[in-house]
Amino acid sequence: MPASESPAVVALVVSHDGARWLPAVVDGVTGQTRPVDRVVAVDTTSRDDSVALLEAAFGPVHVVPGSTSYPAAVREGLARVDAGPHGAPGTAPDDWVWLLHDDANPDPGALEALLAAAAEHPEAAVLGPKLREWPSLRRLLEVGATISGTGRRETGLERGEYDQGQHDQVRRVLAVNTAGMLVRRSVLDEVGGFDEHLPIFGNDLDFGWRAAAAGHHTLVVPSAVVFHAEAAHRGLRRTPLTGRHTHYQERRAALWTLLVNSDHRLWPLQALRLALGTLLRVVGFLLVRAVGEALDELAALVNIAARPRAVLAARRERREARTAPSEEVRGLLAPRWLPYRHGLDAVSDLLAAATDQAADVAERRRAAAAELDPASFAARRPAEDDEDAPYADTGVVARFVTNPVAIVLTLVVLLAVVGAREAFGSVVGGALSPVPDAVGSWWRLHTESWHGIGQGTAVPAPPYVAPLALLGGLLLGSPAAALSAVLVLAVPVALWGSWRFLRVVGRLVSPRGMPRWLLLWGSTVFALVPVASGAWGAGRLGPVVAASLLPWLAHAALGFADPAPDRRWRAAWRSGLLLALVTAFGPAAWLFAAVLGVVVLLCAALLLRAVVRDRSVWGPPVTALLVPVVLLSPWWVGALREGAGAGLLLEPGRLPHAALGGLDLLAGRVSDLGAPVALGLVPAVLAVLALVPRATRVPVLVCWLAAAVAALLALGLSSVSFALAATSTPAGLGALVVLLQGALVTATVLGAMGAWESARREARGLLRGGVLVGAALAGLVPLATLGWFVAGPDDALADSVDDDIPAYMVQRAELGPEHGILVLRGDVSQGLTYSVVRGDGTTLGEDEVLALGGGDGSLAADVRELTARPTPAVVDALAGEGIEYVVLPSPADGDVAADLDATGGLVQASAEDRSTRAWRVARELDPAALDGPRSWLHVALLGVQLLGAVAVVVLGAPTRERRRAR
Q1: Which residue among 131, 317, 363, 417 is the one 20 to 30 A from 1 at the CA level?
Q2: CA-to-CA distance for 679 and 693, rounded, in angstroms?
Q3: Which of 725, 760, 790 finishes a domain?
Q4: Of the residues 205, 222, 241, which one is the last residue of a structural domain?
Q5: pTM
């Protein structure tokens, strides 16, 4: 169509270091079936041959500084258009401006298709082509665009979707990309061009939103095709406007677009949603180890939040220019449910990354095994020896029914849950104090530098409080649910971890791997260690949690032997995090890891001196040892400062711990509530016999080395006793008992594996039969232990606790720490003991703080005087120390009760049990009785702990690789 009969079209090309794409772009512009009337080129100081290529094709090029934004470059180009060629007039209001990038190559019929759609739809003011990926040419990039409520650019396309004509309908959209946008000159001027606050990204969405608000229509014309390389978005080139932070510019543009254009009625909620959503995105990027993108997200939010005046001014300008109904514009935005679907996709991506990494590790181990012994590896029978082997043409249910090992594992888990029925609901008794009413009490105990319990103490909270609080938060804020989950899932979690650990160990020792019946026996025996030891029935959380986490820790530590240095370092962070968790519940585990690490490194230095010199060899295990030191610093530093160093060798729960002897260590017992001793001695005997097979003697000796370290360390610590204010207790050795049993079980299965391989290789029926008989006898151990557990052994766990304190006094105590209750037990002839109850009583975590905090000298003296020669002055002192009630639980000593009845300032109080006597202190209580100093060092260490935990999780998380098309 002649130019005189239709509006003129001016192509405006903006370039920056685009010489690699410009030859094709020039051919695309000059080869249009409907030629453009004029081409204006603007270059932002390219460092390549862009200017020369443009001048050769279109004549003089207007060069502007490299820091010029895209909106400014478009304005410069329009100024050149208005000046006209050689001083001739510029464009008319009805003329069209065709915006092109230096990496956007238009199909020969693109402009003709756009103008044909404009003639068919005269209401259209902005038209855009279908964008396809360059150089693949078939993959779709955009067919129009909009934006979601979280700031995500939405195209309505699936990832990697190919163009098959499925989106070839002309339709109205919110915006089209500036790479190929055809816009009326009058509308461009009316809307005000592109926003200068969006220098390179997002200006098309903002322009389309403003155009729609002004009553103009934007259409996408799929018959017009432009091939776009997306050089800036994909990081194929850097500009002064983006540098290395492309993601920052994109996210900042999204936040700005939403905040300045959203409806005024929803604006406060939109701002809050974007702030919280950005923080969640930061956490998500950290979880996939995309630290740079996480920082870009945070920087973009800070940048926008620091410019409230600019945001409000831009909103005011858009409100004044708005003429279309809000409902019309809202219909062009992305559906409200779309961000939630993307959230599910992100979670699935994270799980896929973890799964892919696990599969990659397994494949590398298989490859290493094949390299060690190709013949035996090729001769493996996958359906018999490999639990990961595929079952051809069978469903999940069929595979389960035909797999006896899977059936037995399922039965073990079900029976373990049945045996743990006592732990459902509220759990208290034995070594377990009651849990607090809310998770916030645990967090407060963890973060406080001074605790208003007892008579007040600065002894830090034990380290297991924070993990329990985090677990309780995940379980709808219920501390009782957290404790119940730890006890109920102890055996299943240990079973799962042991299976994974022993399976990998078997593959490292032999290419054939470990037979599944051996895996079943070993993992089941170890998973039942906390039950058979009596730790579960006694409410000892240390051995229970240690048994659950140690297999996972050992599995992560196997990564120290990985050939790739990067994977060795990642194993260090994972092992360090797991070691910190185990240490929080069993501090002796860290000593074991340190001693074992020193022994292993010394042996390696003697045998493989050249290898150990590599920092990536000795660095990961050392890092894993240092991680708990950092993550648990608020606990151990505070304990040493307050003279409570004994807590560094104590385990969770009420004191004292049971004294353990050599037989207890070998049998794996920490309490008299455990299974029969004979069952515990079987793994020790089998571990000795495991030294006989020559094929696996070396790895069995390694297990015995770990067992020896655990045993010697336990025997050494068993001679240590701590004299605390209220009691004397030995060190907590539960974690070492679990470690010793784990080493013995691993040695046993490796020895059995060696004997089985020898019997198979030598075809000696007698030897093979002996192994089977031994396996059958050994199999009685898990069966007997599991049956004993399911039958309901005696335990110290109960659903309630009898405190002998009237309920109304407890209610008064919950009003504040100054409403304390002094509880006197015993009699004068046998001796009296006292305790102070505050709040809802002593809860899990507080019991250890009270035990380590020591007795208050002034209160002890007042109690002695109160029980010997009570006077009004002593009553005044009790009020000053925050004591409101004095209680003598049943049976109350008559002499003490008579003296207290006659003491001025004490008023008799009622009690539900008539043999229980109680008095109220008729004095004004001191509200500041329990106040104490704040430790800024503790606050700083909490900050170090938080930052360290985030860093360790990020460094140990699976990596999501982002592939960019080049």
Answers
A1: 131
A2: 24
A3: 790
A4: 241
A5: 0.71
